[in-house]
C-alpha cells in the first residue's frame, strides 16, 4: 500500500492484498472510545495506522472498518474522484439504477461504516460537517452516539 499511497509510508509491509482480505494485522476495535477517536480524527488513514500491529500482515483475518476506509482512500487518492461519484458513473448509471449521492434519503442504519460514506460524500472530505446537506438528520451524531452506548 505504501507504493500506492506514498504519503503513508506507515503501511510498511501491508499490501493491497492484506487490505482486501482484512488481514492487515492492525490493532483495532469496532466500537468504544478508540473507534470514536478514530472517527473524529483529521486523517483516518494515519489514525488507523498509528494504532500499531497486533499481528503480522497476512496472519489472521480481522474485520476492520479502518481497512474498508483504506480502500475508499485509495480510490480517492488515486482517481481524485469521490467514491460515491465513481460508483454512480461506473456502476449505478450503466445498470440504469438511479443514484444521487446528494439526494439520497438515508435512514438510520446500524452500521459504523455509514460514517465512512458520510465523510467521503461531504463537500470537504476532511471532516464531517454536522447539519450539512449530508447530515440533515444529524446522522453522524446518531451513529457516534450508538457506538458510545
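^ C-alpha cells above, recovered residues below v
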Amino acid at each position: 500500500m505504501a507504493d500506492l499511497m506514498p504519503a503513508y509510508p506507515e503501511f510498511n509491509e501491508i499490501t493491497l492484498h492484506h487490505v482486501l482480505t482484512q488481514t492487515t494485522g492492525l490493532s483495532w476495535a469496532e466500537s468504544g472510545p478508540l473507534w470514536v477517536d478514530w472517527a473524529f480524527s483529521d486523517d483516518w488513514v494515519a489514525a488507523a495506522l498509528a494504532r500499531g500491529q497486533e499481528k503480522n500482515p497476512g496472519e489472521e483475518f480481522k474485520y476492520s472498518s479502518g481497512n474498508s476506509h483504506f480502500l475508499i482512500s485509495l480510490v480517492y487518492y488515486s482517481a481524485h474522484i469521490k467514491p460515491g461519484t465513481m460508483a454512480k458513473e461506473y456502476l449505478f448509471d450503466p445498470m440504469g439504477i438511479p443514484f444521487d449521492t446528494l439526494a439520497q434519503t438515508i435512514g438510520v442504519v446500524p452500521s459504523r461504516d455509514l460514517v465512512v460514506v458520510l465523510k467521503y460524500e461531504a463537500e470537504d472530505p476532511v471532516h464531517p460537517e454536522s447539519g450539512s446537506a449530508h447530515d440533515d438528520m444529524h446522522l453522524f451524531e446518531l451513529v457516534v452516539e450508538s457506538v458510545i452506548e
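Residues 9-148 form one domain.
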